[in-house]
Amino acid sequence: MTAGPQKKGMARPQIAWRAAQDIPDGAIVNLGIGMPLGIPNYIPAEREVILHSENGLLGMGPPAKEGEEDWELVNAGTLATTLLPGGSYFHHADSFAMIRGGHIDICALGAFQIAANGDLANWNLGDGVRTPTVGGAMDLAVGAKRVFILTDHNARDGGAKIVEECTLPLTGLTCVDRIYTDLAVIEVTATGLVVLEHIEDMSFEELQDKTGAELQQSADWKPLESPDLD
Amino acid sequence: MINKQVSNLTVALAEIENGATVMAGGFGDAGSPNDLIHGLLECQLKGLTLIGNGVVAEDFGQGRLITAGCVDKYIASFPRGPGTTIFDAGTPTAHIELEVVPQGTLAERIRAGGAGIPGFYTGTAFGTPLAAGKETRQIDGKDYVLEQAITADVALIMAKHADRWGNLVYSKSGRNFNPIMAMGAKLTIVQVEEIVELGELDPETITTPGIFVDRVVEVENPTTLYGEP
After folding, report:
1. Residue A54 catalytic?
2. What pLDDT does A138 receive?
3. Which residue among B90, B107, B130 sits closest to A92, beta carbon to beta carbon?
4. Integer Rg of chain A from CA
5. B5-121+151-219 adopts what CATH topology?
């Protein structure tokens, strides 16, 4: 077996780092399971951001340290977490009133597929084997003021995750605002997908080849960069 | 005298019938009334419709009730919790009728049920398979789905403290679905770690007023998923 060429692109923590740079001071943010959970590690220290967890927390802190878990205090992934000073507890109907009522500034989610018009599929692989689990994804997709997607640019088999039209069951219609991948930062606009940044050692044409929907290059295009992260 | 305190789990769970619709609070294991749920197993009920956020473990809490064969239908947002294969094709629970509901819609349907509101419009799930067959409507140029309220025969609730009037105080993220489920059932049964004297609970912190509660049972050391070997 010979080693193939090294995979181009950013590591998952770097994707979270890049998304974190776009979260402004004062934002109220809900984070989905997976890559988005890395975002709080990289929000610049001078910015104060309030994390919302749909199971009834505002002002959520970092994960609980091993040995200090309080299982009455869990996050949306049912892992032990903490509450910051100023944090609050509330019931599920209030929590989703915050979401559905447009009180959450940014929600960061994972995705199976994102369409050129911002349609999102991230809850159901439609394989008929695994029971679909929707959780709060549909409420967040529709309710949050801005929806960020953090995802690998391509599926494990190399197939495109950013496509003209989703083929998997939809989570929400025209709900995605911005996509962060290992290769690019892409804004979903009324006139299509606009590449704000992509990694320098890949040409726009190469990026287009790895994408299942037509891309436009922003006039303000910048190289996608991130510090080395462990 | 009003006294909603009952002496033990058996009394607390009396008079639940086969085919009942049962709601159970909890998100993850937080706020899950595991002693009531496991106590329900001893009632050997059949044909239950169970409503909850989802199964955390296949042989614990709501999962145990389902794998024991008590449940015919499950209404949940996250029916198959992390690390479980419950309801997946080829498993013994695959035949159970599942209604997967977006979590916020599930919460609001339950809240609406308790509040006497038969249905409501929400943008959640519009254009997705979970809105299939449901009435839709445009209001001010936006698309909405009509969702119907949920009520139940029985709600199984976990709180931290109660008094004999049934006033409830919760603990941290253990609140979750409990306050809204307590509102929406004909018979609301609560397990708490401690029942205190009337007046000891600060009225400013009572989250569920006793009007919504029928029975309270004290379980000083509740069974938790993480406390079991």
Report:
1. yes
2. 98
3. B107
4. 18
5. Glutaconate Coenzyme A-transferase (3.40.1080)
